[in-house]
Design goal:
It is built from six helices and two strands, in the order βαααβααα. It is mostly helical and 146 residues long.
Length: 146
């Protein structure tokens, strides 16, 4: 990008704090840009969860594939090195944080993210990812308060 040009990517939110939250964001971005079998994403999950890495990795892969399948619009994802989040990333992380506590609100957020009302499979995937992270000591309570 040349000097003075503006980015077409709107980055309204800062990245969340906490290792689990940043891990989720990094893995999601890597899988979105390089595919669900990305070695960097798998290595990050392995480093974070040790021997218990398979469950969160497989669930993240399933989540990404379900989001891609069910979406009727493009979901904007920032590059891995970016220190801010797109509105779509923030909405996905809000839905993931609320998926276990308030499934109805999370369903509405996922429906908005996907651009349609066929979000039950995606919500289920988000709940599974959030539960796996929570069970393994890296809970995803991202932007829970708003």
């Amino acid at each position: 990008m040349a000097y003075g040009e503006t980015s077409p990517l709107d980055l309204p939110r800062p990245i969340p704090g906490g290792y689990g939250n940043r891990l989720f964001l990094f893995v999601m971005r890597r899988m979105a840009s390089a595919g669900v079998n990305d070695a960097h994403a798998a290595n990050a999950v392995l480093g974070a969860f040790g021997r218990s890495y398979r469950r969160p990795l497989v669930l993240m892969r399933a989540m990404m594939l379900e989001l891609a399948r069910a979406s009727s619009r493009k979901i904007m994802v920032a590059p891995c090195c970016c220190a801010r989040m797109t509105a779509d990333e923030a909405l996905m992380m809000q839905a993931t944080g609320a998926a276990l506590r308030d499934p109805n609100a999370a369903y509405d957020q996922v429906s908005e993210l996907l651009g349609n009302d066929h979000a039950l499979g995606a919500l289920t995937c988000l709940q599974a990812v959030a539960q796996a992270h929570s069970d393994l000591g890296r809970p995803l309570d991202i932007y829970a308060a708003g």
